[in-house]
Amino acid sequence: PAAAEGTIQFRLPDKAANYRLVIVGGPRGDFQRYVQVAETNVVANLTILQTLPNGPFTKATRAPLPSRGPWIRPSKRAIPEGKGRILIERRNAGQAPWALHTAVRPTGSKKAVDAGWQAEIDVAPGSYDITLGATIPIEFRGVVVTAGQTTRTRTPAVGRLRLRTDDALGKPANPHRRVYRGAEKKAVYAGYAKSLELPPGDYRVVFDYVVPIEHTSITVTAGHESHLHASGYGRFDFQRRDALGKAANKHVRITRKSDGKGVYAGYSPAVDLPPGAYKVVFDYTVPMVFDNLTLPAGRAVPLRSQPLGRVTIRSVDASGAEKNAHRSIHRGDEAVYAGYAKQLDLPPGAYVLKFRSGDEDRRIGFSVQAGTTTPVRFAVR
Q: Are 220 and 161 in contact (CB under 8 A)?
């Protein structure tokens, strides 16, 4: 109960195995406690994973679908002389007509004699294999067609899996998703569909957010609609500016503090992630580091770049003509840049520019102030 505190005791049967205890707060719950484990008898390696309030989480529900009436009846169109007819009765999870691409091949052949979307197909007498292009293809093997007769085939009963995904602010999102049947490693579907017709069985679904959410088991039942809702992320909102206050699309790196694993690297203006502690780095000339950031669920956390100043660097020869010479910039004992750039944005402070002129190593000191531009000029031989 939410109002009570106590102890949960459990037994782990296999001493050689690794176990994982996952403690999840509900979608709108107020779960935010530290977890303590008293190992009176060490029977296994146990990892405690604590989630912050609100997610991420997946929620599964299932409801029956209403029937949509009888199966289709054969048309009154005459069967061509010397041929037989295949009637494919296709119904989806709600028993409504199901438009599926159909390929008909002679048994044992790879070449289709008919391919299209029609439900009635006239072919020469013989044995045929039929493939219907559902999410998981439906196969009919050895369908015998007799001249002047109609051979009926009927799609097996299926269920519907409806997928709903929200972003960090609770608005509809449409990340890529993968659907697997049972413990199979190959996905039966990968894409952006929000509704799938599937054979009855147990499935697992992976929503490919920046950090994926996996729902390990959802049951699809014939004639029912199973709903799976993924939500519960938080958002980092990046506000990166250059030395003059203009937007700067700097590279961003995000590391998860719990295990030191990098979870994102790129240029996106915002990233949705599971609640937790993170380290964020803006890759300016001198990287800006935001350490020990806590990301809550359902909220956007703004990260603003720190104030910068600008230095413009011009190198000339003895005659005063432009000569692009190599230079390095140091702050204290730390080298912050080396190369040929003519303009850099740097944190305010004192710096030293080092360069080589002829056989001599030279240096020039300069200061950078936030929001201003400092010109630096040096001559080389």
A: yes
| Tens-place pLDDT, residues 269-305 | 999 999 999 999 999 999 999 998 999 888 899 999 9
Query: Taking 70 as the threshold, does the pLDDT of residue 70 lie above it?
Result: no
* pLDDT value for 216: 85
Q: The whole model's pTM is what?
A: 0.69
Neighbours of 121 (CB within 10 A): 21
Q: How far apart are CA 89 and CA 329, in angstroms?
A: 75
Beta pairing partners, 352? 330, 365
**Mean pLDDT for all residues in the chain:** 84
Q: Which pLDDT score is estimated for 344? A: 95
Strand-pairing partners, residue 46, are 19
Q: Taking residues 16-38, report their average pLDDT.
A: 45
- Round to whole Å and give the CA distance between 257 and 67: 51
Token duo for residue 90: 């296709």
Average pLDDT score over residue span 320-349: 92
State pLDDT tens for residues 31-49: 333 344 444 444 344 443 3
**Cβ atoms within 10 Å, residue 221:** 18
Please give the average per-residue pLDDT across 62-67, as a whole number: 68
Alpha-carbon separation of residue 225 from 66, 90, 218, 234 (angstroms): 10, 18, 11, 29
Helix H, strand E, coil C: the string for the chain is CCCCCCCCCCCCCCCCCEEEEEECCCCCCCCCCCCCCCCCCCCCEEEEEECCCCCCEEEEEEEECCCCCCCCCCCCCCCCCCCEEEEEECECCCCCECCCCEEEEECCCCCCCEEECCCEEEECCEEEEEEECCCCCEEEEEEEECCCCEEEEECCCCEEEEEEEECCCCCECCCCEEEEECCCCCCCEEECCCEEEECCEEEEEEECCCCCEEEEEEEECCCEEEEEEEECCEEEEEECECCCCCECCCCEEEEECCCCCEEEEECCCEEEECCEEEEEEECCCCCEEEEEEEECCCCEEEEECCCCEEEEEEEECCCCCECCCCEEEEECCEEEEEECCCEEEECCEEEEEEEEECCEEEEEEEEECCCCEEEEEEECC
Report angle CA 31, 32, 36 to the nearest 5 degrees.
Answer: 110
